[in-house]
Design a protein that fits this description.
The two termini are 34 Å apart. It contains ten helices and seven strands. Helix content is 39%, strand content 24%. The protein is α/β, with parallel strands linked by helices and 248 residues long. The chain has a seven-stranded mixed beta sheet with strand order 3-2-1-4-5-7-6. The chain has a domain at 3-143 and 168-187 and 235-244: Rossmann fold, CATH 3.40.50. Mean pLDDT is 90; it is low at 1-10.
């Protein structure tokens, strides 16, 4: 990663509790699609969730019956994971150097964390730790800019801070990894202050960039004018990409 990306990756530790409180989970349909595209039934599957953060996706995988292990490089996020999910094992590590023996996993997942890896390393590592017939799954949970008020908010952020504030690199096909894609749309209704707290957990707002506090204050005034009832419906698009590895 470039130096700026490293700084942004490390920024999450200071806001781990806020991240766990305000980042959204995922729709049930995502995990149905995951099983379909991967060919791996989650019940009893050996799964590693890499870049687990506070365990938002890991907890759902566990609830689906997976024998899941969280993998998290950051001390702050790892501590919050353990506080929230003491029943789920967690190891310190990252996707470029996975702490697993070769061929030991049925499924490797990256929930909004693939872009913090070096694909030249994380791709071969995925191939190494997955058994034949296993699968790599990478997904993101992006604001749906097809919805007017969300597109307008994205434009205001870019006007204030420039493009590229929302880091989300898609995995690319490489030797042994050919991805199938599924898109899922979903939404949740939340108070405006919860929406802004969620926005504040993105790395742009955590690294102390000048003007972010003022931006969030102005955004609060704007949203209350637009939605005087005090709530917004956040719309998301989940981009799921799955690559099967060899044949069982």
């Amino acid at each position: 990663m470039a130096d700026g990306s490293v700084e942004r990756a490390r920024s999450f530790g200071v806001a781990a509790r806020r991240y766990g409180d305000h980042r959204p989970s995922y729709p049930d349909g995502l995990f149905d699609a995951l099983e379909e595209l991967s060919g791996v039934a989650l019940g009893g599957a050996r799964v590693a969730d890499v870049g687990a953060g506070t365990g938002i996706a890991t907890e759902v995988l566990y609830g689906r019956g997976a024998r899941v292990v969280g993998v998290e490089p950051g001390a702050g996020m790892a501590a919050e994971f353990r506080r929230r999910h003491p029943h789920i094992p967690l190891v310190r590590g990252d996707g470029d150097r996975l702490p697993f023996v070769s061929g030991s996993l049925d499924l490797l997942t990256y929930a909004q964390s693939w872009h913090w890896t070096d694909p030249a390393r994380s791709g071969p590592e995925a191939l190494r730790v997955l058994r034949p017939g296993g699968a790599l799954a990478v997904w993101s949970n992006d604001p749906d800019v097809g919805v007017g008020w969300i597109a307008d908010q994205q434009a205001r952020i870019e006007e204030s801070f420039g493009p590229g504030w929302y880091i989300n690199e898609r995995p690319r096909s490489q030797g042994g990894l050919e991805f199938t894609t599924r898109m899922l749309r979903w939404s949740r209704r939340v108070p405006i202050d919860v929406h802004l707290a969620k926005l504040g957990t993105h790395s742009l707002f955590l690294i102390g960039r000048p003007g972010t506090d003022e931006f969030l204050g102005g955004e609060r005034e704007h949203l209350f004018r637009l939605f005087p009832e005090g709530t917004v419906r956040e719309h998301y698009v989940v981009d799921l990409r799955v690559a099967r590895v060899g044949q069982p």
